[in-house]
User: Fold this.
Amino acid sequence: MSLVHEIDYGTPASASETMVTLTIDGNQVTVPEGTSIMRASMDAGIEIPKLCATDMIDAFGSCRLCLVETQGRNGLPASCTTPVAAGMVVSTQTNRLKDVRRGVMELYISDHPLDCLTCAANGDCELQDMAGAVGLRDVRYGYDGDNHVKARDNGGLNAKWAPKDESNPYFTFDPAKCIVCSRCVRACEEVQGTFALTIEGRGFDSRVSAGMHEDFVSSECVSCGACVQACPTATLTEKSVIEIGQPEHSVVTTCAYCGVGCSFKAEMRGEELVRMVPWKDGQANRGHSCVKGRFAYGYSSHKDRILNPMVREKITDPWREVTWDEAFAHVASEFRRIQYQYGRDSIGGITSSRCTNEETYLVQKLVRAGFQNNNVDTCARVCHSPTGYGLGQAFGTSAGTQNFDSVEKSDVVVIIGANPTDGHPVFGSRLKKRLRQGAKLIVIDPRRTDIVRSPHVEAAYHLPLKPGTNVAVMTSLAHVIVTEGLFDERFIRERCDWSEFEDWAAFVAEPHHSPEATEALTGVPADMLRGAARLYATGGNGAIYYGLGVTEHSQGSTTVMAIANLAMVTGNIGRPGVGVNPLRGQNNVQGSCDMGSFPHELPGYRHVSDDATRDIFERLWGVKISDEPGLRIPNMLDAAVDGSFKGLYVQGEDILQSDPDTKHVAAGLAAMECVVVHDLFLNETANYAHVFLPGSSFLEKDGTFTNAERRINRVRKVMSPKNGYADWEVTQKLAQAMGLTWNYQHPSEIMDEIAVTTPSFAMVSYDYLERMGSVQWPCNEAHPEGSPIMHVDGFVRGKGKFIRTEYIATDERTGPRFPLLLTTGRILSQYNVGAQTRRTENVVWHSEDRLEVHPHDAEQRGIRDGDWVKLMSRSGDTTLRALITDRVSPGVVYTTFHHPDTQANVITTDFSDWATNCPEYKVTAVQVSPSNGPTDWQVEYDEQARQSRRISGRLEAAE
Assistant:
């Protein structure tokens, strides 16, 4: 094995379709018009020396190393900033150029430390490489006089020298080694879009500065790593490289955090991970990353990780470590006993949206073939199950319509109920880049998220609707489009059912759906709503991106259908730059749904009642599959409390922390007789478990993830599983213990079975993915190279279906006792329930959940910023510290749910979406009052958790 090397072409590729031919060093080269001489040379295999240029950012032309000679022109132009021209004759290596480049390099080295042998970048330093490339053999200038290298100069302090900034937990900044190439500043601006870095001073006094001369961790830097990746010297260096040394081999794999599905090179020394570097050929991230994927992988080797199977008779007992065989035998025996005693439907399973497609497929197969019921569900139940239902009804398929590249051709972008800069930051950066290029933005969110206004980006419209009124807003937008004649009649007649459109149009045109009529319900000014509707309908390519702020409502499915209506009525479906795009929360939540993790659907979204579909699996598996849908997660918990559901296998999910109404979840788990948790850590659900099976991290397994754009990406094993088995092997051995004769030797065999049984995956195999890099389903004979854009020539269901979307107010109401509305969300540095990110240095940025309160509501309650407050609803109460901010509207409070000591979901209720049971996390009536300590429930919960995590033979609890 060796390092995966990527070519740096120096400047970005040109998108022009017009070709130009020129001659470089005697070689004819044909490239797109607008290509730089530097990139054209690299296409021809000729590498021009460079320092300020890299192909992730626009040309800058400051280093003067890349000068070339062009026939018939005076001077020495910079090859990075000079575009090619037809018939141009270029020389990249002449005596004159050699002398100039050596002189330039000599000046750089004269103000640079010569500690190359002990420098962390030794072996990976472009300055070192370029010094060799230009033939630098001597430096005539010493350090006498002004310099940035020495802390003391002639016995006195050197004002130009600056100490190393080690404030960031993941990388260092050493100004003494900076050559002021501005690559870090430009990467922060052009790639990330944060504008956290700048060049302060002028001339020889120029230096890179974070923020207003702050240290990195105190500045606006979001630690995405773009600056570190761009730096050609050791100025910005990962601390892991400083501590471990340079990597010696790398493996391309896929990030296991959010649904963007970024591709990374895991760079290794032996079996030790040195760093994660975003892969430029990754089609989801195009070489960019966020703080989680780039740096927050330390959880995989955290001391809290459990590596041995454990069992106990009662949840009040300490854990007892056992062998794998003992654990499998115990689970099989208990599940058989429970089914014999309580019936076949008394046990079930929950698949993981953090595990691979192959592992998820095996869990649902275990439930259907081993448990012989359909009691299988997944975390999509509590996030995007309304997406599956709503888009399935309108379009005929349960996934987003576009790839992420599509946003580069959008003219108007609508974001509803999503916070891409925090929840999907790499896509958020790509979106901000398009907005800086001139696309218009509409944000529909109760909270003023960062994307509403950030450097060089400002939403044309921010509609701060009242939580729970999504349907009223979407239907009102449609009212404007229909009544003002802004709809695309040709698209509707060709692609949709015209009679259904007429019925729907008459419905939305009714006066009570007008912006003026709905303003009292939604809080959105009528003129703003009308302006947003007109912009979306007439502004060109219109794309809608939505998140959990749409789906996690009692009318989540209705809102998804309303979004689909808007896209169809304006003709914004079936081409680049448009579409309906759910931003999936977890790395493989799309894949877990694709693999048949719902109790009513087999893989490929085919209902269990369909005889032909069941026959496919029954023939292959050699079992009889029930034609009755099984229990959803809320139904499992209800049945457990009622006494009819007694056993549960939970792979890679923490339902006690992530699901609503924590007290009800706890009651359901406590009523079960055998709860099996399969995870990396003793999570909150494990407090009620009887068996713990240690899991493997994404670094320790082979498989595939499917991201939010339906992209199937390879996950590659970069180190041996610390627990001994990959998760698919654990599930297989459990199945074997229960009498099934599975004998998969590698996950590729599982994918082959998926391809045979699932039409949308028909051509997918590991060999195919190696050739293609990645592919978006459907990938079959009709779409052999996948489907970047869906519904190009027609909808999957035939004709697009317009559906009436009547607003029905949630049963969760405010009143004198609970006058405020709580909504929840995520923050950039943390992920989901925090089990992974809380065990990394990301806690530097978010060490606790805070409650955002508007200054007006805070003043009424005598609350100051940082005060401890009690948050109470009809379901329960908790305490956390207040954050006073006008990001939220009066009457609305907001918090995250990343920390179990807060347990925000003890507040949320059991109200849910009418079609899918997706919980209504986003609307909870609450009261906020000053507090001087944790609630009784928090004290009791903490003590129960501490007792539950005792392990026999260990002095301390596991967490």
Remarks:
- The radius of gyration is 29 Å.
- The mean pLDDT is 95.
- The longest strand covers residues 877-884.
- Residues 324-342 form the longest helix (19 residues).
